Amino acid sequence: MTHKTTAEVGEFGLIDRISAIVKPTLAASPGLIAGIGDDCAVWHPAADMTEVASTDLLLEQVHFDLLTTPVKHLGSKAISVNVSDICAMNAIPRHALVSIAVPPSFPVEMIEELYRGMEAAAREYGIAIVGGDTSRSPSGLVLSVTVTGEAEEANITYRKGAEPGDLVCLTGTLGGSAAGLRVLTREKLIMMEHIEHNEAYEGSIMADLKEYSGAIQQHLLPLARLDIVRFLHERRAHPSAMIDVSDGLGQDLGHICSASGTGALLQENRIPVNSTARLIADELQDDALGWAIGGGEDYQLLFTMPHEEYQKIADNRDISVIGEITPKEQGILLKDIYGIEIDLQSLPGFDHFR
For the PurM-like N-terminal domain, which residue ranges apply (predicted)? Predict the structure, then answer.
C-alpha cells in the first residue's frame, strides 16, 4: 500500500481532506454562520453570555512522542486539554480552531488519523472545529489548538476568589497520567535497547497490559471534566476559585493561592490517588503520592467553595474534599499521615523550561 506525503497532495489538497473529516462537527454549533472556507469563522454568541478562550501549543519531542502516542489519541488529547481550560473557568466549550505544521515527508494518512481523533473528541464535548491553518515544519509535528467557550457572567470562575475557610475540592483521582507515562517510557526504552543491539523486540509500545490500561488511557486519552461543570450549573453551585490540574496538584493549588492571596492546608489521607498508579509505583519502587502531587496532566478540576455552597454538591461521590484554604501567612502545606506538615511548594511540578 502506497502512502502519500503532504508534499504530494499539497497544502490545499490537505485542507480538503481535513475539512471532510471535521465537517460533521459543525452541526454542534447552531450559531455558526461560516466555518472552514472563509478567512474567518463567523458565529453568533448566545445572548447574555460571556466569551472565554484558551490556546495550547503541542510540539513533538516536547509534549509528545509519536513512538508512544498514536496520532488519533494525540488529536483527541489536543482538543481535551483545551476544553479542560474552558472547564476550569466554569464555562461550556463551543468552538475550536486547529493549526498544524508538518514536514513535507509526513504521511497524509497520519494527519487524517490525527483529525479523526480531534473530530471524535469534538463530538464528545459537543463543539465545532471551525477553522485553523496549515504550514510546513522543518522538523517534527507542531499542533496549536484554540478553543472558545461561553458562560453566564455570574458563573465565570477565576483562580482568584478563594478565601480562608473555603473547602478545597478535587474531582476524580490523580497520578494516573504520570504512571501511564512511566510505563510507556519504560516500554520505549526497552524497544530502543533491542534495536541498538540488533535484537528482536517481542513486546509492543501499546502492549495489552490490562493491569496498566487505566493509567495508560488517562495519559493518552484524558477527558476534560465538562460533566462536572454542567453538574455545578445544574445545582447552581458557585466555586470561589478553580483551575484544572495540568501541572500537578501542588503547583496548581499554588496558582489559586497566589491569585487569591491565601494559603492552604491539604490532608494527605484525603487525596484520591489513582489505584493503577499505586500498582505501578509499587512495581517501579516509586511514589504514587508524588505522582499525584507533582505529576500533572490529570486534567481534573481543583476548586474552592464555602461550606454552604459545597452542601449543594455534597452527594457527588466523584468530588473529594481534600483540605481547606487558610490565611496566606500559614503557607501552602500538606499534612501527612503522621501529622507532619510539609511545604507543598517545595515539591516539584511541571515547568516547560526546567
Answer: 37-150
Could you list the beta-strand ranges (E) of the chain. 32-34, 42-43, 50-59, 92-102, 128-136, 142-151, 167-171, 241-244, 262-267, 301-305, 319-327, 332-335, 341-343
* Whether pLDDT at 352 is above 50: no
Highest mean pLDDT (candidates 17-26, 196-205, 293-302)? 293-302
Supply the pLDDT for residue 65. Answer: 86
86 in a domain, yes or no?
A: yes
Q: Nine-digit cell at 265?
A: 492546608
Residue 266 to residue 127: CA distance in whole angstroms:
35
Determine which of 3-12, 271-280, 315-324 has the lowest per-residue pLDDT on average: 3-12
pTM for the whole thing?
Answer: 0.86
Q: Looking at the 3D structure of the chain, how many domains does it have?
A: 2
Contact status, residue 326 vs residue 164, Cβ threshold 8 Å: yes
Task: Answer whether 265's CB lies under 8 Å from 323's CB.
Answer: yes
Pair 218, 267 in one domain = yes
- d(C-alpha 181, C-alpha 295), whole Å: 10
Task: Report the CATH number that the domain containing residue 171 is assigned in CATH.
Answer: 3.90.650.10
Residues 329, 244 share a domain:
yes
Please state the residue numbers annotated as binding site.
39, 54-56, 63, 85, 115, 132-133, 159, 244, 246-247, 297, 350
For residue 124, pLDDT over 90 is answered with yes
Q: Residue 295: which domain range?
A: 167-180+211-346
Same domain, 111 and 175: no
Neighbours of 102 (CB within 10 A): 24
> Are 150 and 94 within 8 A, CB to CB?
yes
Q: Extract the annotated binding site for ATP.
A: 115, 132-133, 159, 246
Cβ neighbours around 217 below 10 Å, total = 16
Average pLDDT taken over every residue of the chain: 85
Question: Residues at the annotated binding site for substrate?
Answer: 63, 297, 350
